[in-house]
Specification:
alpha/beta; ABC transporter transmembrane region fold; Rossmann fold; 2 domains; 6-stranded mixed beta sheet; 15 helices; 10 strands; disordered C terminus; ATP binding; cell membrane; transmembrane helix; transmembrane
């Protein structure tokens, strides 16, 4: 339970003293009601009735209800608040994680299961409080039993110690099985994503559908088997505890009176107390099983956070002002490699020696796999240069200046993500200006901007690219990078894009990096960079004037 202990003790905001105090009072009220019931039952056997016992029982009941409610609410609200902080903390760290790290681990496996883990953790508050209250009730009830029969109390203590010892041995194996089941669940969610995102390919290939289904069945069966084993172990532990205490009850009724002669009233009180103790013991048993699942879920979140911590980029630790202008960006021997699991290079981009002057329009061309996307990620600072430097106005871009350097670029990559909210727009850009662009790009009637949000984004790829183009242009950054933006567009829009929109941006002082395969428009560029096998093989100046 180390992860659960850390969660409850180190995460701020949990009112531990108040919860513990309320739980202690709940347990004491429980024990007091038991003693009062035993006393009242003994008087009833003698045809005696004491109204004070009735009143005292009602007071204990009110105390129990108040402290139970208070402890439960405090714990649940504290856990929910802590979960919110942890989720936001993880989300912030994902935002600050390097692109290379995200790509290398396949989109952070385990993050998809964050919601499921959070639902499990949300039960921690009530489970911990119930278990603590039951434990307090067990302690006080056992002390009360010691007054009635020291021998019965000793037997109870021995049974409890034996049960704890068994759980101590078996709980680690249950935790391991639950952890393995979690990993297989993540694999299943990844395969389920293939079903959703690859629906076109799957509908065209029966063999591919069958293969993916076999994989889904295999992963689901493995996850089910691991969960089943963990559940079997949990049921065994629960059954072991229940049988042990039922045997204890048998011993109290049939054996104890023989060993230690006692009156019938005392035997009744001992039996009633032992039966009363069975309730808290059952709650503790169930609570420990539930807390084991919570501990595993918290462990998954902390493991994910540790991976994120290892991939954080230091330049994000303090905010910086975005840059609004530059004179020259230069790659000086900049190189980046993709490595396999053994560390052998799969693809090398560079070394590149390249300069980009403010106000230029540069087309970047090359076949598939030529390294265009990698070069763009080097230029934008999304990929760090493993060798060489990226220079901004003659100064190397390092961890302290990387975020400011990145703020020069507005991008629409081929694998762009279209946010429905326009998060990055500067002050002064309102819905009317966005809607004017929507109308201009032929999207009126398709979507609108209301409250800084697109009303609809489930459009065709070409239409979504136009919305991404609008967002990039309105950000007002010095450099616009458009990766195959004209692809998936109709001929009329492609012509308008090259003859009207790009020249308009250039006239406004924007630097343009355009990835394109359409040679018909190369003459509109100042330069055309050709890539092959990760290297710039030519840098051709076109008819357009290059800024001095």
């Amino acid at each position: 339970m180390q992860h659960l202990r850390r969660f409850l003790t180190q995460e701020a905001g949990v009112p531990k003293r108040r919860i513990i105090a309320m739980s202690l009072l709940t347990g004491m009220a429980n024990m007091l009601m038991l003693a009062l019931l035993n006393r009242a039952a003994a008087q009833a056997d003698q045809s005696e009735h004491d109204g004070r016992l009735f009143a005292a029982y009602l007071v204990a009941l009110v105390l129990y209800a108040y402290t139970q409610r208070s402890a439960m609410l405090d714990a649940m609200q504290a856990v929910e608040a802590t979960i919110e902080r942890v989720r936001l903390r993880l989300t912030d760290k994902v935002r600050r994680t390097s692109l290379r790290q995200v790509e290398q681990v396949g989109g952070l496996p385990g993050f998809a299961a964050l919601t499921q883990d959070t639902q499990v953790i949300a039960r921690a508050g009530s489970q911990v409080v119930t278990t603590v209250q039951s434990l307090v009730t067990l302690v006080f009830s056992t002390l009360y039993l010691a007054v009635l029969s020291p021998l019965a109390c000793l037997v109870i203590v021995l049974v409890v110690i034996s049960y704890i010892a068994v759980r101590k041995v078996r709980d680690p194996a249950i935790a391991v099985a639950m952890g393995q089941a979690h990993h297989r669940e993540v694999d299943f969610q990844r395969a389920l994503g293939d079903v959703v995102h690859g629906v076109k390919e799957l509908q065209l290939s029966r063999r591919e559908r069958a293969g993916l289904r076999r994989h889904l069945v295999e992963v689901a069966a493995q996850a089910h088997g691991l969960k089943r084993q963990a559940n079997l172990d949990t049921v065994f532990d629960h059954l072991f505890g229940g049988i042990a205490f039922l045997l204890l009850l048998l011993a109290v009724v049939f054996v104890l009176p023989v060993v230690v002669p006692s009156s019938g009233d005392q035997t009744h009180q001992i039996v009633a107390t032992v039966m009363y103790i069975l309730g808290p013991i059952g709650s503790i048993t169930q609570g420990l099983a539930g807390m084991a699942a919570v501990d595993a879920a918290i462990g998954h979140q902390y493991a994910l956070e540790a991976r994120l911590d290892a991939a954080l980029e230091p330049h994000h630790r303090r905010p910086v002002e975005p840059l609004r202008q530059f004179d020259e960006i230069r790659l000086a021997g900049a190189r980046m490699r993709y490595l396999d699991t053994d560390g052998s290079p799969l693809f090398t981009s560079g070394p590149h020696d390249l300069s980009l002057r403010a106000g230029e329009t540069v087309f970047i061309v090359g076949g598939n796999g030529a390294g265009k996307s990698t070069l763009l990620k080097l230029l934008t600072g999304l990929y760090p240069a493993e060798a060489g430097d990226v220079l901004l106005d003659g100064e190397p871009v390092g961890p302290r200046t990387l975020e400011a350097y990145r703020s020069l670029f507005s991008t629409v990559f081929t694998d762009f993500h279209l946010f429905d909210h326009l998060y990055g727009l500067p002050e002064g850009v309102d819905d009317a200006e966005v809607n004017a662009w929507i109308d201009r790009l032929g999207l009126s009637g398709k979507t609108r901007c209301e409250g800084g949000r697109f009303t609809r984004t489930d459009l065709s790829t070409g239409q979504r690219k136009r919305l991404a183009f609008i967002a990039a242009v309105l950000e007002g950054r010095p450099i616009c990078l458009f990766d195959e933006l004209a692809a998936d567009q109709d001929p009329a829009f492609r012509r308008r894009y090259h003859e009207e929109l790009l020249p308009e941006l250039k006239a406004a002082g924007r630097t343009l990096l355009i990835v394109s395969h359409d040679e018909a428009w190369f003459h509109t560029a100042d330069r055309v960079l050709r890539l092959d096998a990760g290297h710039i093989v030519s840098d051709e100046r076109q008819g357009g004037s290059v800024p001095a």
